[in-house]
Write a structure and sequence with these properties.
Blueprint lengths: L1 H5 L11 H8 L4 H22 L15 H4 L4
């Protein structure tokens, strides 16, 4: 999974988790970004298998700060 995470930047036709890898790499070194991306990919695979549903590509919203922060009421 680490190798898959490192190759996400090379995927041009099918969007993947390259955006997530780059986001982590801005703050951490590339090895940590690869591990974090691999963990995220495994979490998605686990959820797909657990729910027995097909994979759907849903790109992140521009300017989104995360799903858990959208529910916070100020």
């Amino acid at each position: 999974m680490i190798e898959v995470a490192q190759r996400q930047l090379l995927c041009k036709k099918i969007p993947g988790f390259g955006w997530y890898y780059l986001k982590i790499r801005q703050r951490k070194e590339s090895a940590r970004a690869a591990v974090a991306t691999a963990r995220k990919i495994l979490a998605v695979v686990w959820r797909i298998l657990k729910d027995n549903r097909p994979f759907q590509i849903i790109p992140p919203e521009v300017g989104s700060r995360g799903a858990h922060q959208n529910n916070i009421v100020s």
